[in-house]
Give the backbone structure.
Amino acid sequence: MNLGGATMDERVPRDFETLRTTILERRQSLPKRIAQIAAYALDNPDDIAFGTAASIAASAGVQPSTLIRFAQQLGFDGFTSLQLVFRERLRERNSSYDERLAALRAKAEEGAGHRAIFDGFVAAASTSLNDIS
């Protein structure tokens, strides 16, 4: 599979949930520093998506080379390939939010009461907040 010039083996996690599961399954057997970045990645996926290797490493308390070794432990050819999975998670989340907003607008156009629209907005906001955490 080719993602932005980075090739990925068939065994490499292609989506965030698969990646998350893989990290959780392997976490206990990872070397100390790689386990440290694994925990940081699960707790701070947005930072992994958009941070630089240097800034992520500093925040996680590891050397930048640890990020590369972490990515390679998971089967990626480098940190940038791993980062693409974290970025795709955000794209999917934004699409889901856009879909919920479109559904709310459709209800408004159908003449649904203000209370129904408000309830829908609150439900969409709640779902988005749950996705973030």
